[in-house]
Amino acid sequence: MFNNVEFANPGYLYLLIILPLLGIWYWYKHLNDQAGIQMSGTESFSSKTKSLKQYLYFGLYLLRAAAIGLLIIALARPQSTSSRQDVTIEGIDIVLALDVSGSMLAMDLKPDRLEAAKEVASEFISGRPNDRFGLVIFSGETFTQAPLTTDHIVVKNLFKNVKSGMIEDGTAIGDGLATSVNRLKDSKAVSKVIILLTDGVNNMGSLDPLSSAEIAKIFGIRIYTIGVGTEGTAPYPVQTPFGPDVRYVEVQIDEALLQQVAELTEGRYFRATSNRKLREIYDEIDKLEKSKIDVTEFKKKTEEFFPFAFFAFLLITLEILLRNTIFKSAP
């Protein structure tokens, strides 16, 4: 019935000796089981054969014996096992550090840098079901929007709530990295990664980015940095006395710093000048971060006692019903 069956309580199987003993007792009890009647003789009944119902009556014992046997097997807790399966799993802890400063509202990416970054990052999360993700947002200050979790739906929902202006404006890249490192430093994952996306120059915060990168290196954390923004100038929405307007502002990204941070931790720096380029960057990171672990010793046990207990219950119920209906005897 089952492959590779083991018993958690094999000692109970010794109780199966009860079955042949019950059979011997039953046979002895009914060896001379004949009705006693006060007559001058029973010769007139000697040639009468037993009816089918009389033979079937002995089936009640078989039902009870089978039920007892099944209950004993259920008590022994049979377990099916599967072992030595070769499986490959991929699992990485990734913190997304996202710049939410006012400059992320520039519209060189559509509909703007922040919304494009949120959309592409959500797609990236959906494509990596075996990884844990966390989300850190920063501008002039920083905080953790989502700790590391395998619940990707929660992370993506929290992404939807991210907006520019949530926290003090500015660009504290070093603090954003430090918070991300703090989320990863105790991780036991084979690979720990920070993907930092920003469009500006570090101008606030208590830690400089290179110091944060040094700390990340100590904890074996790799940092991929993405500078987002087109070359030259970018359209930016502004509020004027006459209503909203769009003006072109200079794009300032400290690419040298972002490249140093990435190289210090054996990561890479990328420049995203469009939505398509941003997707290509995440696709490349996806290919780079594939940490495979081959597991050759795999063992899984599944409890299999329920079918035995269930059929024992059915047999006992059937015996009781038959004994009190079809085979009911007068006292």
Q: What can you tell me about this protein's structure?
A:
- By secondary structure, the chain is α/β, with parallel strands linked by helices.
- The protein is built from 10 helices and 13 strands.
- A hairpin with a 2-residue loop joins strand 9 and strand 10.
- About 2% of the residues have low confidence.
Which strand order do you get reading across the main beta sheet? 6-5-4-7-8-11
Q: Helix and strand succession?
A: EHHHEEEHEEHHEHEEEHEHEEH
Strand content: 15-25%
Give the % helix: 25-40%
**Which runs of at least 5 residues are low in confidence (pLDDT < 50)?**
293-297
Helix and strand content put the structural class at alpha/beta
Indicate the radius of gyration in whole angstroms.
Answer: 38 Å
Strand elements, count:
13
Q: What's the helix count?
A: 10
Give a quick account of the main beta sheet: strands, pairing sense, barrel closure: 6 strands, mixed
Give the rounded overall mean pLDDT. 85
What oligomeric state is this? single chain
- Separation of termini? 43 Å
> Rough shape?
elongated
Descriptive labels:
6-stranded mixed sheet; 331 residues; elongated; 37% helix; 3-stranded antiparallel sheet; 10 helices; alpha/beta
